[in-house]
Write a structure and sequence with these properties.
The protein has helices at 11-19, 30-36, 47-60, 63-77. The chain has 4 helices and no strands. It has one domain.
C-alpha cells in the first residue's frame, strides 16, 4: 500500500507477463484474497495449473456454453426446476 505503481497495456505488456518467469504467490494479500476469491483460485496458481484452470474457465465463456447456461437459467425461471436442456 502507498507504493509506486506501474501500469502497462497492449500485446507487448502481455508478452512480458507470459514470457517472464514469475509467480503469483503472495501477490494478493490474504485478507483481500478471502474477500475476492480464495486459496486455490486461478489468480493464485502458477505454471501449468494456472493455464489448465484458466482454460477451463475460458471454455465456460464460449458462445455455445453461455447459450446453454442461458437455456438452463430460463428453464429454472419458468418453473421447470430439475429440467436440464440438452446441448
Amino acid at each position: 500500500m502507498l507504493r509506486p505503481v506501474v501500469c502497462v497495456q497492449g500485446a507487448e505488456a502481455a508478452r512480458f507477463f507470459t514470457d517472464t518467469p514469475m509467480t503469483r504467490r503472495g501477490a494478493i494479500p490474504r485478507p483481500l484474497l478471502a474477500l475476492l476469491q480464495d486459496v486455490g483460485s486461478v489468480a493464485t496458481l502458477d505454471g501449468e495449473m494456472h493455464r489448465c484452470r484458466k482454460r477451463m474457465f475460458l471454455d465456460m465463456m464460449s458462445g455455445a456454453a453461455l447459450a446453454r447456461l442461458e437455456r438452463i437459467s430460463d428453464a429454472a425461471d419458468s418453473g421447470e426446476r430439475g429440467a436440464t436442456p440438452s446441448g
